Amino acid sequence: MKKTTMLKASRALLPSLLLIASPPISASEQGASVPTIHADKPQSAASEKDILETILITPQRQATKTRNSQINIGRIDTDTLARENIAHIQQVLNGIAGVNINRGSGQEYLSSIRSPILTGSGACGAILLLENNVPIRPASFCNVNGLIESHHEQAQLIEVQKGPGNGFYGSNAVHGAINVINPASINQNPELSLQAGEYGYGRLGLKTAGKNWATTTTIFHEDGYSDDSQADWQKFSLAYSGDTGESLQNTLLTAVNLNQNTAGYITGLNSYQDSVLARSNPNPEAYRNLRALRLSQQYQLGENATFGQLTPYARYSEMEFLLHFLPGKPLETNEHRSIGALWKNQWQSDLWGTLSFGFDADLADIELVQEQFAPTQGSAFLMATIPEGKQYDFQVTTVNSGAYVQMHKQLNSLWQLNAGVRAEYSRYDYDNRMNSGRVDEQGNTCGFGGCRYTRPEDAINTFTDLSANLGVIYDINKQQQWLFTVSKGFRPPQIAELYRLQGEQLVSDLDSERIQGIELTWRGDWQDHQFNLSGYHYQKQNVIFRDSEQYTRNGAKTDHSGIEISWLYRLTDSLQSQIEYNFAKHTYANNPVGLDTQIKGNIVDTAPRMFGRWRLDYEPFASHRLSLAISHMGHYYTDIENQHKYYGHVLYDAYYQYQLNDNWRIDLKALNLANKAYAERADYTAFTEERYFPGRDRRFFINLTYAL
């Protein structure tokens, strides 16, 4: 039976919200970290005359031209978001070279950026998720479905940083970062949109704007493709900017509520090809309820930001999630309350060029309970080792702080130098609120050697990490550049890896994961072509994994190499072709202690060698636009032994946009036109063997937009 009582409301967050939401003091548009994007001037690649002049936000937490950035950034602009009217973040992120999002049930997903699909309790810590450059969650408490908590559907821009970057971002920016920018902006055009589609899909969007404020609202419902997989979702963002001459730059408030019934994997070799099985739900009891609230403000300190820019923020989230994939199907409830601030400044000199420096601080109070409400079903071993009752109940107070300096210097008319370093300190104060050890809630010892779940004693864990980067940019001419970068990134362990132990492990002695590597890029324009061609190689150490004895360990190593192609070709004034494609190889580089299987040299599971998307856009008139997209997913192994494989798929999508007049626009969308049976995600376990999240069949959507 579903537990419907959500965790207590944001009782400890309200004082922080009131403090941060104090009356605005001032606002100058000069030096804006997240400038507004004019909604009536789409920032599409096709509209840019020079790709090197494209404005980026993520690399330096402020407006920066591509030609001055050492970071490879994939962009999803206003035009693309309006055209696609996304029902899931996968639909646009998978249109960026090097990004692979595996959709799960409903809005859930697993992600990768220049990596295999990242799984496990702490793997979500390898990609930093941001909203207007503010982390969506504390560094120690990531959510594998973290973009559910962002208001990306109607954002003005989404940027994806590929690979470890520069000193501006530390913890969790191992394989990259995703930054959702301006889900509400005072420069947006007021509009009302209504979208409808198959399987009971409906979405209402509303944008409003005043002189110095704006709101964005999204209300979503879907009956679900699988049985008992309906979802209801409400999102609201409020933006405010102070009057000219005030120090307040921008305020952003985002609130999210999700109530979703979750469908589980279907099992059996190629079961996704069976249309009846594909729509079945082996776990109709599964669900996820989530609420999130974030508030951030940007202040210019001193006249013309002499003393830099300060961005204080506060966050709150709570979630109930039935762990239907575990024996006994326990319920996890968690919540966090956190506050923090980002401070940055700049200094100019003839010797050092532009020095950007700053300090970040984040404090979080995190609570987690895992409880099973019925006896475990299955073998005698499972019933004996997983009794009902509480399995975890702990609180963790975390502190994360970092300082950085980043240099950009124009060496001469052809060469630029970028270099930086970041030092970061993390402290976790763990309080176990039930008995410790490998016993049940009452302190009884389980049969077959002991209980499955282990609770460590109270502890304090600290981590100190350094990241560094060095990059040179060479101007071939005004339209083309070579870029060479050496970088190093890290992520400290997640609290789920440190304190949700199993088996005989009483203490997890974990260190931070680390990655370092090189990248070479050729980017720019040539006649009617825009391109970004990149090659990279990364080595990753201290990879955290769970061994054959259910111990959480460090010690795995992986190698990651790839070539990315982003190429746009304007065939005529009305026809353009764009390809975003990836060739990659992700391998295990050692046989870590504690793992029985010999895996060195094997391809990492769920790591396709090739994938990407080709798109053809035809715009015969200013009011009509027709697009065809072809997505390719190459084959990949589904187990670490490389004995089982998913053979990939090709999908066809079509889009049509018609601007009826100044006020009305209609969008039509057809996904999976060929009605291909495919798997969004394929996996293999010794218990279930082949299992899949099936892809959805052919479906149609219509969207009406009215400019208010």
Automatic annotation (TrEMBL):
UniProt-listed InterPro entries: Beta-barrel_TonB, Beta-barrel_TonB_sf, Plug_dom, Plug_dom_sf, TonB-dep_rcpt-like
GO biological process, one term: siderophore transmembrane transport
Topology of the protein relative to the lipid bilayer: Multi-pass membrane protein
Gene Ontology molecular-function annotations: siderophore uptake transmembrane transporter activity
Keyword field: Cell outer membrane, Membrane, Receptor, Signal, TonB box, Transmembrane, Transmembrane beta strand, Transport
Record-annotated membrane-spanning stretches: none
Subcellular location: Cell outer membrane
Statement: the UniProt record of this protein carries the keyword Transport: yes
Domain (TonB-dependent receptor plug): residue spans on this chain: 67-177
Domain TonB-dependent receptor-like beta-barrel, first and last residues per copy: 245-673
GO cellular component labels: cell outer membrane
The UniProt record lists the keyword Flavoprotein: no
Stated family: Belongs to the TonB-dependent receptor family. Hemoglobin/haptoglobin binding protein subfamily.
Protein name as it appears in the record: TonB-dependent receptor
Naturally occurring in which organism (per UniProt): Thalassotalea mangrovi
